[in-house]
Design goal:
This protein is of the alpha+beta class. 43% of the residues lie in helices and 15% in strands. The protein is built from six helices and six strands.
């Protein structure tokens, strides 16, 4: 599995306009997340709980999970607890995002995707990562569990 690292940095002095965020050294576009929910036509921001940070939270969760369901279910809480607290320069891995999701998956209402995780006796971040990857490919598999997402 490819290691994915996200990072962003606010120039000093601060630049005007959207702030670039990078995924493994390539710029992460806000466009995919804006098609799901357009909080900020101007793109990404961080360090406070506003529209630009909401767009970043949604984009990171969407990219890390490849699931609109998970991204939409968690991005506001991710914004308030993680994105709003980021400093001028930050780095975050996909695994760190998965670990945050694993700790917070009960936030989604019953009947949503992570309910399968509640059925497992113990779910580790590795299990969650496998689950997310399987979900994005169309087959959800947990240790001892098999669920069709279709």
């Amino acid at each position: 599995m490819e290691k994915v690292v996200y990072h962003g940095s606010k120039s000093i002095p601060a630049t005007a306009g959207p702030l670039p965020v990078y995924r493994n050294g390539k710029e992460l576009s806000p466009q995919r997340s804006q098609c799901v929910r357009n909080h900020s036509p101007d793109g990404f921001e961080w360090g406070y709980p506003g529209s630009g940070p909401s767009q970043l939270a949604l984009a990171l969760l969407l990219d890390a999970t490849n699931s609109e369901t998970i991204a939409q279910g968690y991005y506001q809480e991710f914004n308030y607890t993680v994105i709003a607290a980021l400093g001028n320069a930050w780095t975050m891995t996909r695994e760190e995002i998965w670990n945050w999701l694993l700790a917070h998956f009960s936030l989604l209402p019953p009947g949503e995707l992570p309910d399968v995780l509640h059925q497992a006796e113990k779910v580790t971040s590795a299990d969650f990562a496998k689950y997310i990857l399987a979900w994005s490919e169309g087959d959800v598999v947990l240790p001892g569990k098999a669920v069709d997402n279709g």
